[in-house]
């Protein structure tokens, strides 16, 4: 199951417009345009879209830090929303590894706007699983 260099994005990530900029076991960078389809009632990028971006980046980083036969799943995610991202802007995400243990990986994703200001900080705990095909 584990591919240390993920080549494909999930259909959900594609639907959000997420583009991978760079990925290695120490850092993942992705971005996502803030489109009208991803707007909330206030006319800015929806928090759920930001969390989807962070989950994609953090999950990619976690996968890149797994061993053969391992998989991962998010068991906890905490988001601090600091500033809005206006429609027409871009959300830039940078995930870094905070901890790599035997059964968990903890990543932090900082999301910035085009002006470089931080819009959100997301900390995720990913649980490591042994991937088994169904019998």
From TrEMBL:
SUPFAM superfamilies: Thioesterase/thiol ester dehydrase-isomerase. The keyword Hydrolase applies. Its EC number is 3.1.2.-. It comes from the Bacteria. It is an enzyme of class 3 (hydrolase). Keywords: Hydrolase. This is PaaI family thioesterase. It comes from Paracoccus mangrovi.
């Amino acid at each position: 199951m584990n591919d240390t260099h993920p080549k494909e994005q999930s259909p959900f990530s594609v639907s959000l417009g997420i583009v991978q900029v760079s990925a290695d076991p120490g850092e993942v960078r992705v971005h996502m345009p803030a489109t009208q389809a991803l707007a909330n009632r206030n006319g800015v990028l929806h928090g759920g879209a930001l969390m989807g971006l962070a989950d994609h980046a953090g999950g990619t980083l976690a996968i890149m830090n797994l061993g053969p036969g391992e998989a991962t799943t998010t068991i906890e995610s905490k988001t601090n929303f600091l500033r809005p991202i206006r429609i027409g802007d871009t959300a830039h995400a940078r995930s870094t590894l905070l901890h790599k243990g035997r059964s968990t990986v903890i990543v932090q994703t900082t999301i910035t706007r085009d002006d470089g200001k931080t819009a959100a900080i997301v900390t995720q705990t990913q649980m490591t699983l042994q991937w088994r095909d169904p019998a």
